[in-house]
Design a protein that fits this description.
74% of the residues lie in helices and 0% in strands. It is built from three helices and no strands.
Length: 74
């Protein structure tokens, strides 16, 4: 299949496989770390999300999220 016939997802997977082959595992991991880091300042955003939250509240949110994931998988 030629590149212009690929969907965006197919093209992305093809390009990533080439990078992995050419860079090796360590180089590929480095590439992903550098170019898939997202946007914004996670530390500042996290501080806002958790402002005033207690450890017990955070643990409860994690447990609730875990329960939701288990229900979806069933």
């Amino acid at each position: 299949m030629q590149i212009r016939e690929m969907s965006d997802q197919e093209f992305q997977l093809h390009a990533l496989s080439i990078l992995q082959r050419e860079l090796g595992a360590e180089g590929f991991a480095r590439f992903l770390r550098l170019y898939r880091s997202g946007r914004g300042n996670y530390t500042e955003e996290r501080d806002q999300w958790l402002k005033g939250a207690t450890i017990d509240e955070i643990v409860e949110q994690i447990r609730a999220s875990d329960q939701t994931v288990r229900q979806v998988k069933q």
